[in-house]
């Protein structure tokens, strides 16, 4: 399953939550934009009701497991 497509604001807000920062830190657009971005992340299951990142939210920034387990080419 491919990761959800996120806007730059959504990625920044999710990164802030993962890093333990205020979720609106560094985001432009004011409180309405921040609230809409937060709701979008909650709707996608990436933030919980307490504005903490879910496992799915953390996985957005985790390297894919397949790349770590590929075997080297015998060439």
Report on the architecture of this protein:
The structure is a single chain. The chain has 75 residues and is mostly helical. The chain is built from four helices and no strands. The protein has helices at residues 8-18, 30-43, 55-59, 65-68. Helix 1 packs across helix 2. It is globular, with a radius of gyration of 15 Å. 16% of the residues are buried.
Class computed from helices, strands and strand pairing: mainly alpha
- Which word captures the global form? globular
User: Rg, please?
Assistant: 15 Å
Q: Kindly state the mean pLDDT as a whole number?
A: 86
N- to C-terminal distance: 31 Å
* pLDDT < 50 runs, ≥5 residues: none
Helix content: 40-55%
For the sheet with most strands, the description reads: none
Number of domains: 1
Keywords:
75 residues, mainly alpha, 4 helices, 45% helix
Chart the SSEs and their pairings.
Elements: H1 8-18, H2 30-43, H3 55-59, H4 65-68
Helix pairs in contact: 1-2
Would you kindly provide a brief summary of this structure?
The protein is an all-alpha fold and 75 residues long.
